[in-house]
Design a protein that fits this description.
single chain, 363 residues, alpha/beta, Rossmann fold, 10-stranded mixed beta sheet
Length: 363
């Protein structure tokens, strides 16, 4: 156990250095124009705060979809225009890779993490579609893959020191996910849609699930209560904090980004029958454990069922051997419990044998 933990800590630090070396920070901006507000106001903090308060008071409207969306499918790629207007033409077109399945009672949307290529989640999507024989759509988020203005650049659309642009980008993610879920229902006849998301994908997935009764299940790898606090305290976003803290305190950042935070959205699940699993890392320096624990408490206080699986690794090493196998088993277990479908290939029992060896915990 100690040897596994030392390896995980060493490899995690190596991956953090690798990822952070690529990040460059945009200059601070209130981002009022990106939200349709007057950028020339004398009190941008008040204008932004009032905007957020209005959005929180009617978050269903904030995350609403239009009545009609012109979908198109070609060579297993779903495309359609995003209903959130942005100033980047590539991000305006939503793209999702579709994997077929014979069943029509359940379907999944797979939501990658920040700055991940969609291709990194194609193997997972294919495996899950084969194991459960269900349709799966792996979405590309704004600023990612073909939706990036500059290929390979950091997707600042969804996380930067531009407060308003970050709100708009995360909102777009959630609304785009809802639109993909609607396509699964309308075009594939899916009765119940679930989500599998990681990190940023977990945050925006929670927002989509909370604001769409069609989405009844969420399996979220890494999640947090507050988007603002995650950015402020996370090792992956130190460059964003350095710029933000020159202009606004954490208290205000947290409030501005409450509308894109999982915590405030959880209460909307209280009146619905849902299935949620959070898979977190004990030594996560990106979504620190305190923020995950607070989110778990919010679920419990709201009376929303939640299963929490904790792996003895870090944010990045959760995707690497041997922890990636344990995470995959937890995802498969969640889908099996939600759907009642036995996987076509019985891999789960063998993988589950790793849990006591690695020190995996269910809470």
């Amino acid at each position: 156990m100690a040897l596994v933990q030392r390896y995980a800590d060493w490899y995690e630090k190596r991956l953090i250095r690798k990822h952070n070396a690529l990040k460059q920070q945009d200059a601070f901006s209130w981002g009022l124009a990106e939200l349709g507000l007057d950028s020339k106001t004398n009190d941008p903090a008040r204008a932004l705060s009032e905007y957020v308060d209005r959005a929180l008071a009617d978050s269903d409207a904030f995350y609403a979809l239009p009545d009609h969306i012109p979908y198109s499918v070609s060579d297993s790629e779903l495309t359609f225009p995003s209903s959130i207007d942005v100033d980047s033409e590539p991000s305006q077109t939503v793209r999702a890779r579709v994997y077929s399945g014979a069943r029509t009672d359940y379907g999944l949307v797979v939501v990658p993490h920040w700055n991940a290529s969609g291709a990194a989640y194609d193997a997972l999507s294919w495996v899950l579609s084969r194991l459960f024989d269900i349709p799966i759509a792996r979405i590309s988020l704004p600023g990612h893959d073909e939706r990036a203005v500059t290929p390979g650049a950091i997707a600042s659309e969804v996380c930067s020191a531009n407060i308003g642009r970050t709100i708009r980008g995360v909102r777009q993610c959630a609304v785009d996910i809802k639109a993909v879920a609607r396509w699964l229902r309308d075009e594939k006849g899916i009765a119940s849609v679930g989500l599998v998301g990681a990190s940023l994908g977990s945050c925006v997935g929670t927002l989509a699930m909370a604001h769409d009764p069609l989405i009844e299940s969420g399996c979220f790898i890494h999640s947090c209560a507050s988007y603002g606090e995650a950015v402020w305290t996370g090792s992956a976003t130190e460059h964003v904090r350095r710029e933000l803290e020159k202009h606004v305190p954490l208290r205000d950042v947290s409030h501005y980004w409450d509308i894109i935070s999982p915590g405030p959205a959880v209460s909307k699940l209280a009146s619905r029958r849902t299935s949620t699993t959070i898979i977190s890392a004990r030594n996560d320096s990106v979504f620190i454990p305190e923020l995950t624990a607070r989110l778990r408490l919010i679920y419990r206080r709201a009376g929303v069922p939640l299963e929490h699986v904790v792996l003895p690794c870090g944010h990045y090493t959760i995707g690497h051997f041997p922890f990636g196998i344990a995470a995959l088993e937890a995802v498969i277990h969640h889908i099996r419990e939600w759907t009642g479908i036995l996987p076509l290939v019985r891999t789960s029992r063998a993988m589950h044998g790793l849990w006591p060896v690695l020190g995996v915990q269910r809470q």
